[in-house]
Specification:
The complex is a heterodimer.
Chain A: H1 10-24, H2 27-35, H3 40-47, H4 53-84, H5 105-119, E1 123-124, E2 130-132, H6 133-136, E3 162-164, H7 169-178, E4 183-192, E5 204-214, H8 219-234, E6 240-244, E7 250-259, E8 276-278, E9 280-285, H9 287-292, E10 301-308, H10 309-317
Parallel strand pairs in A: 1-4
Antiparallel strand pairs in A: 2-3, 4-5, 5-10, 6-7, 7-8, 7-9, 9-10
Chain B: E1 2-4, H1 5-8, H2 18-28, E2 37-39, E3 42-46, H3 59-70, E4 94-96, E5 102-111, H4 120-129, H5 136-148, E6 152-156, E7 169-173, E8 179-181, E9 187-189, E10 195-198, E11 203-206, E12 210-211, E13 224-231, H6 233-243, H7 248-253, H8 261-276, E14 280-287, E15 296-300, H9 303-308, H10 314-323, E16 327-332, E17 341-345, H11 356-367, H12 388-403, E18 406-407, E19 413-414, E20 436-437, H13 442-454, E21 461-473, E22 476-487, H14 493-511, E23 519-524, E24 527-532, E25 535-541, E26 544-548, H15 549-555, E27 572-583, H16 589-596, E28 602-612, E29 620-631, H17 638-654, E30 658-659
Parallel strand pairs in B: 4-7, 18-21
Antiparallel strand pairs in B: 1-3, 2-3, 5-13, 5-14, 6-13, 7-10, 8-9, 10-11, 11-12, 15-17, 16-17, 19-20, 21-22, 22-26, 23-24, 24-25, 25-26, 27-29, 27-30, 28-29
Helix pairs in contact in B: 4-5, 5-8, 12-14, 12-15
Classes of the chains: A alpha+beta, B alpha+beta.
Chain lengths: 333, 661
Amino acid sequence: MVNTNKENPAIDTYIKEFKKDLEDLDIDSIYVKYLGKKGIVNTLFAGIRDLSSDIKKDVSKDLNTFKSLVESEIKNKKDTSDNTSSEKFDLTYPVNPTKIGNLHPVTIVTRELYQFFHYYGFSVQDGPEIESDYYNFEMMGVPKDHPARELQDTLYILEPEHLLRTQTSSIEARILKNTKPPIRFVNGGKAFRNETGSKSNGAIFHQFQGVCVDKNITMANLKWIFTKSLKFILGEDTKIRFRAKYYPEVEPGLSPDIECKFCVGAGCEICKFRGWIEIAGGGMIHPNTLKEAGIDTNEYSGFAFGWGLDRIAMQRFKIRDIRLLINGNIVYV
Amino acid sequence: MKVPLSWLEKYIKLEHTPKEFGDIMTGLEFMQDGPIKDIENDKVIDLEIRQNRSDMLSIIGVAREYAAYLGKKVNYPEITQEFDTNWGTPKENLSVQSKNSVKRFCTVQIKNIHIKKSPEYIINALNAYGISTKNNLVDITNYVMLEYGIPLHAFDVKKLDKSKGHSLLTIRHAADEESFETWQKTKINLTTEDIVVADSKKPVAIAGIIGGANSDIDANTSEILLEAAVYDHATVRRTALRHGIRTEASLRHEKFLNPEMVEVAIRRATLLIQQLCSGVVVQIEDHYENNEPLKTIDFNVFEIERLGGIHLEKEEVIRLLENLEFKITDQKEALGVNKDIITVAIPDHRTDVKIQADLVEEVLRLKGYEHIPRTGISASPPDFSTPKVLLVEEKIRDILVNIGLSEHITNPLVKYTKEIKNQIQLENPLNAELDGLRTTIRETLLPVLSRNAKAGNLNIGIFEVGKIYMKVKQGEYNEERRIETVYATDKNLETLFKQKVKPDFIALINKLGINDDGLKYDAEENHLKYFYNKKLIANLFQSGFELITDEISEIVNLQNVPSTLIKSSLSQKIVEELSLVVSKNKALGEIIEIIKSEKELISQIEIVDLYEDAKLGLNKISITVKIIFEDAENKLTKESVGKLKEKIVNMLSKKGFKLRD
C-alpha cells in the first residue's frame, strides 16, 4: 500500500519522477507507465480504497490533481511531437532550383564602381544620350574637321548638330559648364559609334566617366584613384602600368593598362597580342576645356578619366566577346 | 605606323631588342599594335599614332623619339643641294587660286629622267612597310613620304595639257560634277568643295589625296614636276571622307603639318632623283605666302609639379626638352617661389605643342609616368549628391531580380518606320536595318526572348533599364527613362498574365511602398494604364509591363520602409472569407477595389480560390477572397467585423457580385 499521508511527500516524489520521465522517455512508454491499466495512476487510486473517508478525501484530491497533470502533459508532448515529426519521403527527389534573377554583368561592375567612388566622395550624375556637337566634341577639344574626330565615327540623327554621344565625356562637359568647383562625380552610361562591332569593340558600349576638379589636383591623384579602383574591381593582384596617351580633352594624357587576365601577359587575341589590355584613358582636364567652362585654370586643376565598362565586365566574368553583352546574347543559367 | 627596324637604324642605332623597343615606344605614347612581324628579312613593329602627332607618321619621327629616350642625336640624311639660291615665287609652272586651302605648294621641274627599277634598299624598305614598288621615281616619292612624313607627288610633264596663257599646274576648286579618274582607275564625281591640282583642261590630282591616271609616271616618262604641299587639313579631310578615299597621303594631310617641313622633304626627294634617276633640275617654284613663324612658349617649370604631382629640377626639365629637340631660347631668373620661367622654341615638326600643359606632358612622358607618385585626394568631398531617379532605378533592379527576372541590355537602334509618330531617324546609319531609335524598350527586348527560347529557356521573365527616344518637334528631342519587363511562357498568355505578369507588377509596386490610395487604373483592350494622382506611372500588358521611371521616382520614398509590408504579429486579427459567384464577363478587378474601400481596418486581401465550373451556371466563376481585418488597438469585435463584412457584401451586391449560396 502506498503511503499518501499529507505529511508524507510521496505525491511530490511521483511528480518529480514523472517530470523526469517526460524528458527522458518516449511518449508511448510514459503513457503505459502512468496511464496504462497497471500504470502508476490506476495503482495509486486502487491503493486508497481502504483508507478512512476523511483521509481518503484529501488523498484522492491530490491524486486527481496528479492525474490531470499527467494527462495534460502527455497530451502536450503528443501534440508537439505530432507537429515536428515528419512523414517519410524521398529527400533525394530531383528538383529545379528556385528562380532568382540576375543583374547584367555591366550593371554589376557599374554598381561596384559607384560604391567604390562614393566612398571617396564622388556622386553619380547623368546626361543625355542624344547630344549636341558642342558638348560631345567642341567643348572637349575636338572642333569641326579636327583630325581627332577620326577617333570616333559618329552616328548623327536626322537633324543638324545632333548626334548620339560617342563618349560619356559629354556629361563632363555639361557638368563643368553648369557647376562651380569643387566638382567630383562619376557616371556609367551608353556610348555609340558608327562602326561594325568586333570581339573587342562594340558599336554600342558602356563607358564609365569620372571627374574631379579642385585645388591642387594632380596626375599623382589620378594614378592613385586608377590604381585603387582597378584593383577594387578586378582584384588586388591586378597588374597595372601607366603610359602617355593622347586624348584631345586632356593634357597631359594618361592611360592605364592592365595585364591581360586571359593570357597573363603572354599575348593573345583578346589583348591583341600585347599582353596588356588598354582599359581606360584619362589625364588632366585640358586648360581650354576648363576655360570654356568658365573655370579659373590658375586656381583649379582637375583630372578626368573614362573606361570601358564592357571590357571590365569581360575581364571580370571571363567573357571573350564584347557582343555577348548586348541584345541578350547572354543566357543566364 | 609600320616601322621596319633596319630602316629605322639608318637614323639611330637600336640599343634594345625589338620587344624592348616596342615597350619603350608604348611608354612614350606610341602603343605597339599587334605582334612584331618578320617581313623581307626585317623586323617590322606597328605603332599606334594618335591624331596629334603628324610627325610620327615617318621613320625619322620615330627615330627622334627613340633618340630622345636614349639621350642621343638623330643621324639625319645629308641633303646637299646645288639649287639653294633658286627658290623662287611661282612663274609659268604654278598658279594657286584656292589660296585659303593651300598653305604651301612647291614644285621642282626635273628633266632627263631615266625610269628604271629602284635600288634594293628602297625596294626592301617599301615592301617591309607595305607599299608596292613601281619604278625608281614613284618609289622615291613614297620613300621620302615615309622618311619625313610629307607626301610628294610627281606629274609627267609630257602628259599635261599646255595651253597658252595657262600655268602648267593650277590649284583650284573643282567644278560641280567634274569627273576625275585616279591612277587606280577609280572614277570620282567631284564637288565644288574639293580642291584639285589641274592642268589647263582637267584635274590631274585631288589635292593631298591621290593622283590621276592621266598624268602618272610610266616607263617613258622623261620630264616631271615633283610636288610637295601643305593644305588646310579640314579641306583634305572633308574631301577624303566625302569620296571615301583614304590614302597614305591623305592620312598625313588630314593632320596638322607644318609648311616649313615641305622644303626639307622636296630637297631630299630631288637629291635622290638626281642620284637614282639621273635627273636634272630645271626650275623650282614655291607658293608660300604666309611663312609659318617659329613658335615659342614661356614655360613656368612649376607647372610640372602643379599638374603632374612630381617635382623636377629645372636642369632636368631643360635636358628632357632638349632631348626632344626643343630649344631653350631664354631663361628668366626666379623672382619668387615657383616662378622659374624658361622660353621654349618648338621644333617645326611638332605642330601639337601649343601651351604649357603640352610641355608638361613632353617632360613627363620622357621622364616616364612610372616616376609620378600615387597620392590620395586631400580635399574634402564637395556637396554634390546623386539624383534620386538613379537610386530608384537601382532599387527597382534589385526588386525585379528578387522576383526572378534577369536583366538585359539591348541596342536601342531599330528600323525606322514612318508609321511610328515622333520616331527619330539616323542620318548616317551603318546598317539600313538600324536607322532609327526605339520608342519603347519592349521592341528591342522582345527578340531576346526568342534567342533564349532557342537556348531552351522557355519560361522566363527579363527586364531592361534604359531610355526611349522621341522627337518633340524640329530641333527638340526627348529621351525618357523606362524600365520594361517581358515574359515568355510555353502555356497560354492568360495564365502567364495572371500568374506572373500582374502578380510581379503588384509585388513591385508594394515593395516600392507606393501608396494604394493614389493608385488608379484604366482598363483598355489588352492594356491596363496605372495612374498615380492622375499621372501615368506604368503600363501593364499581357506579357510584360512598362514603368515610367521618372514618374515612379517622384512618388517613391526611399527613406521609408513601406508600412504595408511590416505588420505586428501581436495585433488583433480576424480572418473572414467571402465566396462570390460572378459572371465571367465582368472585370473582376472591381471586387478588390470595392473591398479596399474599407481600408482602415483591412490589412490584407488575398485571392484564395478562383475557378470555373459548369455547376455554377453558364459563364460563371467562383471566387473566394480572404480578408484579414486588423486593429492595432485590439478593438475589433465579432459584431463590428460582421457589420463591416455586411457592408462590403452589400456594396458588392449592388455592383452585381453576389455571394455564393
